[in-house]
Amino acid sequence: MKRLPAGVIGVGHLGQHHARHYATLPGSILMGVFDPDAARARLIADRHAVQAWTDLDDLLRQVEIVSIAAPTSAHFSTTKACLEAGKHVLVEKPIAATSAEARELVALAAQRGCLLQVGHSERFNPIMQRMRPYIDRPAFIECHRLSAFGERGTDVDVVLDLMIHDLDLVLSFNPGPVEEVRAAGVPVLSSNIDIANARIAFVGGCVANVTASRVSTNKMRRLRVFQRDRYVSIDFQSRHAMVSRRSHPTGAKPVIDVESYQAGDEEPLRLELDAFIQAVASGSRPLVSGEDGEAALTLATRVLEAIGRFTQRHEEGHAPGMAVGQENI
After folding, report:
1. pLDDT tens-digit profile of 19-48?
2. How far, in Å, CA of 263 to CA of 218, rounded?
3. Could you check whether 4-120+269-288 and 123-264+300-311 share the same CATH topology?
4. Per-residue pLDDT tens for 291-316?
5. Is domain 123-264+300-311 in CATH 3.30.360.10, yes or no?
6. Local structure of 322: helix, strand or coil
7. Where are the domains of the chain?
8. Are strands 65-68 and 88-92 parallel, antiparallel or unpaired?
9. Can you tell me the distance from the alpha carbon of 302 to that of 99, in angstroms, rounded to the nearest whole number?
C-alpha cells in the first residue's frame, strides 16, 4: 500500500497527536500542518521536520487525506473547504455545530466521492473493540464520563464536549429509533453546561442513562450494558471489563459466572487514524462515518433541547423533582 500524503489542520492539544501519528504510521506521510497560530504551527512542524503552511489551500494541494482538529465552530467551514478540494477528511467530534451543517457535509462528501470520518475515538479503544461482540440487543445502558475542570473544550457545553462520546457508543449498539429524551444540566465553572444527565428511551424498549461532568474530582469513563442473558461492564481508563452471565447447574439454583478481560495499551487515536488510512486506501466505509457523526450530533442536540426545557420549567417555579425536559417523537 502506498503512503498517503497527510496534513493536519489545527495542532493544539489534540491536533499535535494527529501529526505525530501521521508522521509514523506506515500508511501515511505527513506533508505539513496548518494552524491560525503561526508560532504553534511552526513548533509542531519543526518537531516532525515538515512544512508549517500559512495558506490552507497550499497545504491541500500537497495532501490526499487531512485531519481537522480545529475548534468546533470551525469544523463546518474547514471540512467543507477540504471536501470541495476533493480531500478525504477525518474531522474531530462533533462533526459540526448543528445537525443541518452535518447533513450538508455528509451530502457534500458523497457528491465529491470523498471519505468522511468523524473522530469518535472511544470506538477504537482496545477494550471497546474487544467487548463489542458481547453486546447484543441491550435493554439498559448506563454511561458515566467524568473529568476535572480544564479550560480546553469549554467553548462548547459538556454534552458536545464529553457526553457525545457515549451517545455515539449507545447508537452504535443499534437500539433503534429514539422515542423520548429527558435531560437536566447546569453550568458550574463556565458559561456553558458543565454537568448533565440524560435518560434516552428507544422505541424498541432499550433505555440509556448517560451522565457527563467536567467538574468532578475523580475521573471516570465507564459503560455498563444490561442484556437478557448477560451484563457487560467496561472501564475505558483501566481497559478492564467484566462479563457476568447467569448459568443453571443441574439440580442447583442459578448462579452468576463472571469473566474478566484486559485490553492492551494501544492508543485509540493511532488505531483510529490507521483505520481511516485503510478505509481511504480500500474505498470502504469508515467505522465512524459522517452519517454516524450526524446521528450522534442530532441526539446531542435533542439532549440540549431537553435541558433547555428543564431549565425553563425550573426557573418558572416548578418542583425541582418534576422539572425534567422531555421530548417525544
Report:
1. 999 999 999 999 999 999 999 999 999 999
2. 22
3. no
4. 999 999 999 999 999 999 988 887 77
5. yes
6. coil
7. 4-120+269-288, 123-264+300-311
8. parallel
9. 10
